[in-house]
Amino acid sequence: MPKLDLSQIPAKGGSSYPGKLAESVAGRTAQRLGDAGGISQYGVNLVHLEPGAMSSLRHYHMEQDEFVMVTAGALVLVDDAGEHAMLPGDCAAFPKGDANGHHFINKSDQLASFLVIGTRTETETGYYSDLDMRVKFANGAFAYTRKDGSPLTADQIGDDR
Length: 161
Known about the structure:
This protein has helices at about 35, 155; strands spanning about 10, 30, 40-50, 60, 65-70, 75-80, 80-85, 90-95, 105, 110-120, 125-130, 135-140, 140-145. By secondary structure, it is mainly beta. The strands form 3 sheets. It has a 6-stranded antiparallel beta sheet. The chain has a 4-stranded antiparallel beta sheet with strand order 4-11-12-13, with no helix packed on it.
């Protein structure tokens, strides 16, 4: 099954972010192309952003490389150096351990998409540039804490329960 039929691969939304932080990626969906093709050593996802949506909170990875190529529409890459216009064919690379927090925002009035390819590791640690938040991934689960490992508070995640 070398050729994948994109129309048969579901686009899923949602987020593992805690509390109301999950709402920050409303309007983002992803098709897991690598999973659909049986690839297990790295992830390949086609991400779609509705107008006004962002790909994630600004973050960087300690164990996983990421490579992104815009495939449709216009996006803005936001990283530590500022904002960078990204059009179809434009690429960006984020090596593991590089503390340059990044994400993509669709500031246009049209749907935009990008292909993201990244390393799959058994564990991962990521940091969020604009928040006092760290994520650790192990045993198939995400654990969010402050950067120093202490628990997040309700006000940090917008949880008013």
